[in-house]
Amino acid sequence: MKKRLLLISSMSTAAVTLSLLSVSCVKLIPEFKPEILNSSQLQTIRESFVFKRTEEGKKLSIKELHQIMKKARQASENPIEFKNNKELRKYIILDFVDVNSIADGHTMKIFDPEYDPATDSIKFRVLIGCDTEPRELDEDFWLDKS
Fold this sequence. Notes:
Elements: H1 2-28, H2 39-48, E1 50-53, H3 62-75, H4 79-83, H5 86-91, E2 92-95, H6 99-102, E3 107-110, E4 114-116, E5 121-129, E6 137-142
Antiparallel strand pairs: 1-2, 3-5, 4-5, 5-6
């Protein structure tokens, strides 16, 4: 009987201790606050963007390329999946640095590509930010038609 009481007592003590530890751990872990990108980091991101046609892409009209880009963008909102879309890569070279390789805690959003009839070109808007500063970079990138 004593052994059973001792076992139950030690198990309940362990359960209470573990729950207290888990509650206190939550409070001991500081919240992660990403650092705002500096001008040099923003420039690195800007310069990393490549947006041009492949040899196959040069055989298509800009409007056709725009439709291919829209379809690829609708397939995935994830920028990495978008740039690696197999159909898109046949016609468009799209590359950029992973923002989190420069500074952790940032997100990149690529908006639907737009066709501009005045310039017969394609652009897409990129928004990069974090919890601290949601609009660190908000820029349009245009198709290099060369």
